[in-house]
Design a protein that fits this description.
This protein is an alpha+beta fold. It is built from five helices and twelve strands.
């Protein structure tokens, strides 16, 4: 089994929540070679927990806060509050708990399928995924020589294939405009379950986003000079999509100040339809030895 296939299966396993009681679920954690749980994992699992309490409607928006670093060696319990069920919309609140303390909160809204007015921003004019170069994998023999924690860190991208267009080269340390575009899709076939696709889009939306705020400063995270952590994450689902085909993530960063950076993203399918939007603020600090 290839590394990508193994990582894909592992990711699908993470999306299988265990019901503990009414409105109470438990999810496993994935070790990505760091001391904390990947924020996108908690985001996706919390959305799935909320979705499990809703019938005949899909999530159209979510707003989340990262309160504490998650422990990758412990499961996470998700407590869902069924705030409201109306004729068209349902509201849910989710608290993620580890070791008796909340590490994350999420508010999500769900809507029945509805037809209405439509408009959208156009997709940026960028090379298609067939013209974009994939991120090169290390040869197997080189990868196997790396420390296990570094292998896990690199394999965090494993379930997805990324093809960068602009602003995604971690070795490029020249200051550049705060814009980034890259194509991505799943490394495997996924069942046709819209709630699962939305949860996994929330998962992958945590990659590459807040890092856009570092581009004007010419400092790459690979240098080890930055301390970065997500503070919050918002997402809006506009149109149906599938992760089995290429999607374009177009990101920008309007501002960085006070040790925080703001980044926004728009996600398009290959037909140019805007399927989702994101926004995230994160801590971005120079490490003391780098000042």
């Amino acid at each position: 089994m290839s590394r990508q296939s193994a990582a894909f299966r592992e990711l699908l396993g993470l999306m299988q929540l265990e019901p503990l009681e009414v409105n109470l679920f438990r999810g496993a954690s994935r070790d990505i070679g760091t001391e904390r749980v990947f924020g996108g994992q908690v985001l996706a699992q919390a959305l799935l927990a909320a979705s499990s309490t809703v019938e005949d409607r899909l999530a159209h928006s979510l707003h989340a806060y990262f309160l504490r670093a998650g422990d990758p060696d412990a499961p996470i319990v998700y407590s869902v509050d069924r705030s409201r069920d109306g004729r068209s919309f349902s509201a849910r609140r989710v608290v993620a708990i580890q070791h008796g303390r909340p590490i994350f909160t999420l508010a999500a809204s769900f809507q029945v399928d509805e037809v209405g007015l439509e408009h959208q921003f156009g997709m940026p004019e960028v090379p298609g995924p067939d013209q974009a170069r994939p991120i090169a994998d290390l040869p197997r023999e080189e990868f196997d020589q790396l420390p296990k924690n570094i292998q896990r860190w690199l394999d965090r991208f494993g379930p997805f294939e990324f093809r960068p267009v602009r602003g995604s080269d971690p070795d490029d340390q020249a200051p550049q405009p705060p814009y980034k575009e890259l194509w991505f899709k799943l490394h495997g076939e996924l069942e046709d379950e819209p709630s699962l696709h939305r949860a996994l889009l929330a998962y992958v939306s945590d990659f590459h986003l807040v890092g856009t705020a570092t581009l004007p400063h010419g400092i790459s995270w690979v240098e080890g000079k930055l301390m970065m952590a997500s503070l919050d994450h918002a997402m809006w689902f506009h149109r149906d999509f599938r992760l089995n085909d290429w999607l374009l993530y177009s990101c920008d960063s309007p501002s960085t100040s006070s040790g925080r950076g703001l980044a926004r993203g728009m996600i398009y399918d290959r037909q140019g339809r805007l399927v989702a939007s994101t926004a995230q603020e994160g801590v971005i600090r120079l490490r003391k030895e780098s000042r």
